[in-house]
């Protein structure tokens, strides 16, 4: 039996145009991925505790939702760095390379502006989720029996990731404009 050719296997990674930021985003992606594995382990434990021992926890559901939400938020950033986002290429694929480059720059600029606008809107959520009216810091809580600070933390992460996404699209726009491949 022969070994498969290792040169044919391509590992997903940040594209060159994503720059150092994209490489950093790509390397850090293991953290939310491990969060998904942890959430699976928590759910398995919860099933055993609930149905075998009749002793469910009060924290498993909110924790798994939080870990999955973090992974989904980070997934959007990772898709931009790896150029794996959804796009309609019906017309794009028919265009010559220099027109595609212009479109890549324009699309990246529009995405950067959109991400920045959403980050600014998320800042308004963070203001309400992280500070009391008197100015003291206090993260929004879930309101459940366990009452973790997950909603406040998620809103802060959303704002930060949208800011990074805007920055990533700016890096992409500059590198597309330079013709970097």
Description:
The model has no long low-confidence stretch (mean pLDDT 93). The longest helix is centred in the middle third of the chain and has 34 residues, at 97-130. The radius of gyration is 21 Å and the shape is flat. The chain is an all-alpha fold. It has one domain (12-178). The protein has helices at residues 19-28, 30-51, 60-82, 97-130, 150-178. The protein is built from 5 helices and no strands.
Number of strands: 0
Number of separate helices: 5
Number of domains: 1
Strand portion, in percent? under 5%
List low-pLDDT spans: none
- Work out the radius of gyration: 21 Å
Sheet with the most strands? none
Helix content: 55-70%
Order of helices and strands: HHHHH
Question: N- to C-terminal separation?
Answer: 38 Å
Mean pLDDT: 93
| Oligomerization status of the protein chains | single chain
Q: Structural class of the secondary structure composition?
A: mainly alpha
Shape: flat
Function: Part of the tripartite ATP-independent periplasmic (TRAP) transport system.
Subunit structure: The complex comprises the extracytoplasmic solute receptor protein and the two transmembrane proteins.
Domain Tripartite ATP-independent periplasmic transporters DctQ component: 40-175
Organism: Albidovulum inexpectatum
Summarize the structure in short.
It comes from Albidovulum inexpectatum. Part of the tripartite ATP-independent periplasmic (TRAP) transport system. 65% of the residues lie in helices and 0% in strands.
